[in-house]
Structures are given as C-alpha cells and as structure tokens.
Amino acid sequence: MADISLTSAAAARVAAIAARQGKPAILRLSVEGGGCSGFQYRFGLVEAAEPGDAIAQADDATLIVDDISLDLVRGCAVDYVESLGGAAFRVDNPNAAAGCGCGASFAV
Questions:
Q1: pTM
Q2: pLDDT in tens, 52-61
Q3: Which of 53, 56, 85, 105 stands 20 to 30 A from 70 (CA)?
C-alpha cells in the first residue's frame, strides 16, 4: 500500500486551483495539534517538495506530506468531495480512531 494517495477528483481540483493562482499543482497536507478531535488537517499549495517528504502523483497534480505528519496519515487517500454541505478536500485516514463531524480533525 502506498504511504499517501490523491484521487483523480482531488488532483483535478488541485490543478484547477493552481492554474488560477499561477502556481505548480502541488498540494501539501500537514497535521497540526488542535481541532475538535485532537489533530487537524492543513492543506496548502506549495512551490516544491522538501527533502524527506512523501510524494504521490495523480494525473496532473502532486500530493506531499512531511515526514512528521506522515506518521499520522500513512495510508491515507485525499479526495475532493462536493455535496449539499459544500465542497472540500477530505482525508480518508486509516489511522484515525475518531473524527469530527466536519472531517477537518481526528484522533488516533
């Protein structure tokens, strides 16, 4: 199993956002303390990967995760979901023992 993965829907959204902002289609996922369940996901476009980052390619986009955050999200898939409640990136994290209703934070 790959350390991290990016779905085609998420890759298309990253590529669209990056094109609008004139940046490379590289999405960084990081984990920070906080949120309603203990840890929260942070997303942002970056110019390039850093040494030690885990890297996943999908279509025309790249997902990167730093080595510290990787321990908390290893095996995850990042998806982009549109629903009546809105549209957002969603992390399917096999390491999360619990999560919040909005999907932005988790506990291990």
A1: 0.84
A2: 999 999 999 9
A3: 85
Please say whether the beta carbons of 96 and 107 come within 8 A: yes
CATH number of domain containing 15: 2.60.300.12
Q: How many domains does the chain have?
A: 1
- Residues 95 and 72 sit within 8 Å (Cβ to Cβ): yes
Contact by Cβ (8 Å): 76, 4 = yes
Mean per-residue pLDDT of the chain? 86
Could you write out the DSSP letters of every residue in 69-87?
Answer: HHHHHTTEEEEEEEETTEE
Measure the CA–CA gap between 36 and 47, rounded to whole angstroms.
30
